[in-house]
Amino acid sequence: MSISAQMVKALRDSTGAGMMDCKAALTETAGDMEQAVDWLRAKGLSKAAKKAGRVAAEGLIGVASKGNAAAVVEVNSETDFVARNESFQALVRGVAAVALANGGDRDKTAAAGYPGKDHSVDDEIREQVATIGEHMALRRSTGLSVPAGVVATYVHNSVSDGLGKLGVLVALESAGDAAALNDLGRKIAMHVAATNPLAVSAEEIDPSVIAREKAVYSEQSRASGKPEAIIEKMVEGRMRKFYEEVTLLKQAFVVDPDKTVEQAIAEVSKTVGQPVKLTAFVRYALGEGVEREQTDFAAEVAAAAGTR
Asked: 3-state class of 158 per DSSP?
């Protein structure tokens, strides 16, 4: 019997097993879907679907770079224990390499071929789920590149080369010396890891965020009872302070607090004899924004012991 791509996809969707495993199961069972499901269960390859409902907020951030481009990915697991597993670390490193080749596009990365295998990144993750026994997922991926210059990388709480709990990319566009740019870029990436700015400059901040801040400052200023003209100037002053606190270029440089990041870039521009422009940055912190399950450990133990 001929095994169609639609049959393989249907079995994959229902079991969570890898594409090649699904094709093998259908071949072994002459296309019988129910028998194919049982075949996968017997082989222990249908675990992925059962794990998919679990919250995965642990895992690793991975970065990869080459030339004037870099990518950062977040691959989640259920426990930090798995993140220390060498197989999982190799998986994240491989996913980061694929993301780099696909400009950091998450969907393209998931569908692209996994290095050294004849299946996709998504399929490789499913196979690892079946092997390791925890729900895993490629949560997000981003890439940065510049026509000339560098994209510097930094990984905080590193567990291995290019892997850790927090990853940063910083894109510097310039025709200047690459070594000097990399040094500056890494220092700025460390700064971003520490300060978590909202945007490169005020122009890039979400207008709704600016409107909300202005509204709060206006309300606070009006409580002083001063005239509207004075209140307007007070709000302008507070907004300048706000921009200094949350925009990367205006922040005091962590490496040298006596100057702003913008001033540090200007100094390096003079040193390398070429303009240097910070075009973008990306900061990934593991599990940020994921709603974690709150469990009652004592109740779980009691339930396991049959006392509740």
From this structure: coil
* CATH no. for 58-202+247-285: 3.30.479.20
SS3 166: strand
206-246, CATH topology level: GTP Cyclohydrolase I; Chain A, domain 1 (1.10.286)
Provide the residue type at 152 as one letter.
A
CATH superfamily for domain 5-51: Ubiquitin-associated (UBA) domain (1.10.8.10)
DSSP bridge pairs for 75: 60, 138
- What is the torsional sign of CA 267, 191, 283, 167? positive
Contacts of residue 231, Cβ cutoff 8 Å, sequence gap at least 6: 218, 221, 222, 224
pLDDT in tens, the chain (308 residues): 688 888 888 887 667 677 788 888 899 898 888 888 777 766 666 554 444 445 456 899 999 999 899 999 999 988 888 888 899 999 999 999 999 999 999 999 999 999 999 999 999 998 888 887 788 889 999 999 999 999 999 999 899 999 999 999 999 999 999 999 999 999 999 999 999 999 999 999 989 888 888 888 887 777 777 788 888 888 888 888 999 899 999 999 999 999 999 999 999 999 999 999 999 999 999 988 765 554 444 554 455 455 44
Q: For the chain, where are the alpha helices, taking DSSP H only?
A: 5-15, 19-28, 33-42, 47-51, 80-83, 86-101, 106-111, 121-132, 178-195, 207-222, 228-246, 261-272, 297-304
Nearest-angstrom CA–CA distance, 198 and 205: 7
Beta bridge pairs of residue 74: 61, 140
Contacts of 45 (CB under 8 A, 6+ apart): 15, 17, 18, 21, 25, 127, 130
Closest to 20 measured CA to CA, from 109, 119, 114, 116 = 119
What residue ranges do the domains of the chain occupy? 5-51, 58-202+247-285, 206-246
